[in-house]
Amino acid sequence: xxxxxxxxxxxxxxxxxxxxxxxxxxxxxxxxxxxxxxxxxxxxxxxxxxxxxxxxxxxxxxxxxxxxxxxxxxxxxxxxxxxxxxxxxxxxxxx
Amino acid sequence: xxxxxxxxxxxxxxxxxxxxxxxxxxxxxxxxxxxxxxxxxxxxxxxxxxxxxxxxxxxxxxxxxxxxxxxxxxxxxxxxxxxxxxxxxxxxxxxxxxxxxxxxxxxxxxxxxxxxxxxxxxxxxxxxxxxxxxxxxxxxxxxxxxxxxxxxxxxxxxxxxxxxxxxxxxxxxxxxxxxxxxxxxxxxxxxxxxxxxxxxxxxxxxxxxxxxxxxxxxxxxxxxxxxxxxxxxxxxxxxxxxxxxxxxxxxxxxxxxxxxxxxxxxxxxxxxxxxxxxxxxxxxxxxxxxxxxxxxxxxxxxxxxxxxxxxxxxxxxxxxxxxxxxxxxxxxxxxxxxxxxxxxxxxxxxxxxxxxxxxxxxxxxxxxxxxxxxxxxxxxxxxxxxxxxxxxxxxxxxxxxxxxxxxxxxxxxxxxxxxxxxxxxxxxxxxxxxxxxxxxxxxxxxxxxxxxxxxxxxxxxxxxxxxxxxxxxxxxxxxxxxxxxxxxxxx
Lengths: 95, 491
Description:
The complex is a heterodimer of chains A (95) and B (491).
Chain A: H1 5-14, H2 21-38, H3 73-77, E1 83-84, E2 87-88
Antiparallel strand pairs in A: 1-2
Helix pairs in contact in A: 1-2
Chain B: H1 8-16, H2 22-40, E1 43-46, H3 48-63, E2 74-78, H4 105-113, E3 116-121, E4 141-142, E5 145-149, H5 155-162, E6 168-173, H6 179-185, E7 188-191, E8 211-216, H7 219-229, E9 259-263, H8 273-288, E10 292-296, H9 301-319, H10 338-349, H11 352-365, H12 371-394, E11 397-401, H13 417-421, H14 428-433, E12 437-444, E13 450-457, H15 462-474
Parallel strand pairs in B: 2-3, 2-6, 9-10, 9-11
Antiparallel strand pairs in B: 1-3, 4-5, 6-8, 7-8, 7-12, 11-13, 12-13
Helix pairs in contact in B: 2-3, 5-6, 7-15, 9-11, 9-12
C-alpha cells in the first residue's frame, strides 16, 4: 500500500511530530514497504477469532482506595524542564 | 587470577569461603572495563564509586554471614530500568538527563541482595532496534568481531557479559531483545514468562510484551539471577502471583524422557547453513542425553513478525505519548505555543527509528485503519497462541535457532528497516504468546561468530527450559570460549 506524503503529514500531526521534508519523504517510502509486508496478514482467516490484547489472562486488580505514602512534590518536579512555585510551567495556552 | 572472568556461582563460593572480597572482584571488573570498554562501548553510564561503596557494604555483610546469592556480585543493568537518583536514559536524547526519583522493583531486589552495580548499559533507543545502533549514545560492538553489531536491543548488556565487563547483567525483551543479542554475543539470555518478573520501573516500550530477564556467562548463573528477580509485585498488576521456584534446583542434568518439539515452519529456508548445522547437532546431542524429539507445527509462524510489528509500535505510540516536554525529560527551546512545544520537543528528542515506530503505530491505530491493522494483528496473535497450546500438548519444550544467521556487520541493515526487523523472526512469537524462552550458545560459524539455540517452554515453566539448557551446556564447551577482543576478527 502506498502511503502518500500527505498521509504521512496527517499521521505526524496525530503523533505530535514535526517532520522535516526529508523525513516525510523517507517515511512515505519506508512505511509503504513495511505496510506491504503487513498485507500478509490478509491471507489469514480471522473471522470469529477473538483478538488477544495481552499475553496473560487479564484479571483486574483491585485495592482499597486509601491514602499511602507517595513521592514528594519536590521529587515529582525535580526532572521538570520548567517548574515554578510547585507547579509545572508550560507555554501560554489561552490567548 | 583474573577475577572478572569468573561466573556468579564461582564467585559466590569464593566470597563465602573468604577467598576473595567483593571489593577485589569489583576492582578487577572496573580494571577490565578500563582495558576494553573503549573497543566495545557497552555502557552509557559507569558507576565505579557507587559500585565500590556497595562492595564494601557487601563485604561487611558477608563477614557477618548474612549474604544472599548475589551479595557482592558486580552486575550491569540495561539503561531502561529506573535506579533512584541515577541517570536512566533509555538510549534517548529525550531522557539524556533524567534521574528517576524511585527504584524499579528489580533494582530494589538486587539492592536487597547487595549486589554491586557496575553501570547502565547501552541499548537501542527505547529498546526499538535489533542491533544497538539506534542509541543516542553510540554503537555497541560485538566482542567477537568489533566490526559487527552486538544485537539488540540489550546489546550493551550482552556485550558487557561477553567481554567480561561485568559478572552478569539484566536486559529486557519485547521481541527478542535479550535472546537475540545473547545469541550474537555467545552468552546465555532468558526472557521469562510474561508476568513472572515485575515491570515496575522498566521504561515502557510495548506493555503487553515487555519482560526483564538475565544475561549471563552460563545457565547456572541464569537460574540464580532469575530466581532473584522473579515474583509477584503489587506495583505491577500484570505480574502474576505464582510461587517462585528456586530455579537452581532444576539444574539436575537429567533430561531423560523430555519431549522436544521442532517447529517445522522455522526450518523452511532462509537459515544460514552454519546455524542450521549447529542447531541440528544440538538436537542430536540432546537426544543422546535421553530426550526425544519430534516435528510439530506452528502453522501461523509466518504471520508472527507482521503481527508483532503492528502490535509493538501501536503500544509504543501510546506509551511514548508521555514524552511531551512537560513533566520530565528534554524540552525544545523557544516553542510557539503548547502544541508546537510538544511537536518540536518530540522531533528533536527522538531518533529516527523511534519516530518511525511512533508513525507506524499511530497509523495502525488511526480511524479507518484500526480494524485492518491493530485488530487483525491481535486476532492473528490469538491464532499463534493456539498453535503453541496445541504444540505443548505433544511436547515439553520447543527448539529453534535464536536468529537465522550470526551477527551482521555494523551499518549493514540500517538503511532497510524491514531487513532489520526480519532478524527477530524466531524470537517475537514467544512475546506475543507470553511463554518463556532461553538462548544458549550452541556453536560457532566458520567465521568464528557465536550461534545461539532457542528453547521455548510452557507458561511459567522456566524450570524445564533451564534444565534442558543446562544439560546441553554440560556436554558442550561453547560457553567456555571467550572473545580475544582483537580489533579484527576474534576467534
